[in-house]
Amino acid sequence: MRPIYRIVVPFSILALHSCGATAKKSHSSTSAKADDSTAATNGYDAVLCGVSGWSDNSGYSFNADAWNPQGDGYQCLSIINASSPTDAGFDATWYWPDDPGNVHSFPHVTYPLTDLPSALSNITTLRLAAGWAMTPGSVSTARGLEKRAAFDLDGLEDIGATANVAFDMFLDEDPENSTNATLAGYEIMIWIGRVGTPYPLGYDSGNASCYTQQLGSFNFSLFTGLNSHNASVFTWVSTTDQLTFDEDISPLLQYLWRNDLVSADVLLGVIEFGSEAYYASGNVTFSAGQFAIDVLNGDPPNFSLDAIGKDCPKPKKSNAKAKARPAELSVVVVFAICTFVALSQGNGILF
Ligand SMILES: *[C@@H]1O[C@H](CO)[C@@H](O)[C@H](O)[C@H]1NC(C)=O
Ligand SMILES: *[C@@H]1O[C@H](CO)[C@@H](O)[C@H](O)[C@H]1NC(C)=O
Ligand SMILES: *[C@@H]1O[C@H](CO)[C@@H](O)[C@H](O)[C@H]1NC(C)=O
Ligand SMILES: *[C@@H]1O[C@H](CO)[C@@H](O)[C@H](O)[C@H]1NC(C)=O
Ligand SMILES: *[C@@H]1O[C@H](CO)[C@@H](O)[C@H](O)[C@H]1NC(C)=O
Ligand SMILES: *[C@@H]1O[C@H](CO)[C@@H](O)[C@H](O)[C@H]1NC(C)=O
Ligand SMILES: *[C@@H]1O[C@H](CO)[C@@H](O)[C@H](O)[C@H]1NC(C)=O
Ligand SMILES: *[C@@H]1O[C@H](CO)[C@@H](O)[C@H](O)[C@H]1NC(C)=O
Ligand SMILES: *[C@@H]1O[C@H](CO)[C@@H](O)[C@H](O)[C@H]1NC(C)=O
């Protein structure tokens, strides 16, 4: 295994996330429908394809969330040990050979939210855990969980795989909207892995080294932007791939409200973990498991937060839930930006 972090990236690829995440759609559909006969044959509890979801009310729920399918591409998500709070996991095999500039799916697990929604400033601890692997091909781990350990970066590079691995959280001032990813006014992502060169919204703002926070033994950089719902998106990007993650992430939340980027009383109502898949010229399997969540509400501790970088502007409060522009205008703007970026292919920039 070798480190994934790459310094110089083609400018065209930098646009991937901007042009992709801006189009993020609902991924909250839940139906128990699944191809159970196929699932049973392969040793899985359920197989979900397209945008279908699955939940047995035992805690975790799962969603294939292939919300932006393209051409010959496809994705299915197979659930293993579905009802086990400690051993649940999934394998999502996808193939997105077209439209490399956009996210096509976000196969994910949704964590149980017994003690949420909760105001950001009333979260004492928010421990999140997950483990993941990614390999080229269609890897089934239903009869051999040890296969899940693989992370074949060279093999993924051979097929041009582009994807991130991330926690995805949704928030809003309104308790009901805070529990719906489509209606929520704020989104906070924590990227713990990157394959290929996916980039977060706002990567090109020039302040990549301005807003950072150490968590555990890793450092995260903050990027901000607006998605197509005009929701404010805050993306914490780890500078190192973390194949297993088990941390109290509340310092990353605290950074946002103590620095006045998000109001302290905004409510956190959805927490997911998965992988935004952009492109691969062959099958890729993303596997995930070892999920855990612990929420403790009440007075937050006063974490020591990293100082804002030298010569960096003080962060400005985002203006979520502003009046959306007419849809056609946003489409034109996004199209123009993506076209500009496509034309700029070849210019490397430092990240
Ligand atoms: C998980 O699922 C696999 C395959 O169905 C099975 O062999 C294993 O016993 C399960 N583990 C637990 C802890 O249920
Ligand atoms: C979220 O809101 C959208 C738009 O109103 C709605 O279609 C969808 O059913 C809601 N999802 C859930 C899980 O309530
Ligand atoms: C919930 O979100 C929708 C869509 O943004 C918005 O129209 C509605 O006013 C919100 N509801 C509340 C109570 O904020
Ligand atoms: C994180 O940043 C701190 C402060 O700049 C540095 O001392 C530390 O080595 C970094 N850790 C990693 C894992 O990069
Ligand atoms: C890709 O995955 C699909 C679904 O698992 C499978 O049917 C197909 O044979 C795989 N293709 C290759 C080349 O492995
Ligand atoms: C903060 O959390 C505590 C502990 O769960 C709860 O009693 C209190 O009502 C919460 N405060 C607010 C403002 O939500
Ligand atoms: C948190 O601690 C810092 C220094 O460690 C201090 O400057 C700041 O005022 C404290 N904030 C609160 C709200 O207690
Ligand atoms: C980063 O810089 C841009 C201007 O280049 C600014 O609009 C944005 O607010 C900055 N980000 C933060 C978190 O302050
Ligand atoms: C989003 O909200 C901002 C802040 O008010 C506004 O200026 C902008 O026009 C909106 N953008 C879109 C695409 O709706």
From TrEMBL:
Domain of life: Eukaryota
GO biological process: polysaccharide catabolic process
Molecular functions per Gene Ontology: carbohydrate binding; cellulase activity
Keywords associated with the record: Carbohydrate metabolism, Glycosidase, Hydrolase, Lectin, Polysaccharide degradation, Signal
Signal peptide: 1-23
Keyword Zinc-finger: no
Entries under InterPro entries matching the protein: ConA-like_dom_sf, GH11/12, GH12
Entries under PANTHER family matching the protein: BLR1656 PROTEIN, CONCANAVALIN A-LIKE LECTIN_GLUCANASE
Record-stated family: Belongs to the glycosyl hydrolase 12 (cellulase H) family.
Protein name (database record): Concanavalin A-like lectin/glucanase domain-containing protein
